[in-house]
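New to this. Explain the following:
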Amino acid sequence: MSWRPALSQVVRELRIHICQKSPSSQGAREFIEKNYVQLKKDNPKLPILIRECSGIEAKMYARFAYGKEEAFSLANKSESQIQDVMKTLAQSTA
């Protein structure tokens, strides 16, 4: 997947907030379980922070150069839909 190494060229920090039990966070939890290790291997210097909190909406925050941040809702998204969000981030020029 060629988009993974490109992620750290655009994004300075990635924060993913999920609920441990909520069905709306299921896709985000699956994405983390299946993709976190490879993302870190491809982007060793990119901080990827996973935050778990009971009862919250699944969201991803991307911080770009000059402190610009964008939030993306991950609620009720499947693992493949979240991969599409990540691909879009990697291809952006934010």
